[in-house]
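REQUEST ID: PR-0412
SUBMITTED BY: lab tech R.K.
PRIORITY: routine
TASK: structure prediction, single protein chain
INPUT:
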Amino acid sequence: MLRLDRALSTPGLVPERPRITFGDSVSEDPTSTAQILSLLQQAQAAFTDTKVCWLHPDWDDTAVQSEVNRILTETGQAVPDPMQAGELA
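STATUS: complete
OUTPUT:
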C-alpha cells in the first residue's frame, strides 16, 4: 500500500518495514503472588528479603534492605543478636 501511495501521490515517501518489540511476558496475578508469599511465610520457608525481592523485582539492594528493616521493626523481629552483645561467660 505504501508503494502504491508513493507511486500515485507521495513521491518522497520511503516505505519501511515496521519494527515490533514485545514487552516482558505476561505478569503474574497479584493474588497468586500474595498466596505464594503467604504460604512461604506460614511455612517459615523464605527470608524476609527473599519475599521482598519476589514482590518488588525492580527494586535495588538499598530499597530492599530498607523495606526489610521496616518489616522486621514493625513485626518486632528486629532484635539485636545476643551473641554480639558482649563477651560470653
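NOTES: The radius of gyration is 27 Å.
REVIEWED BY: pending
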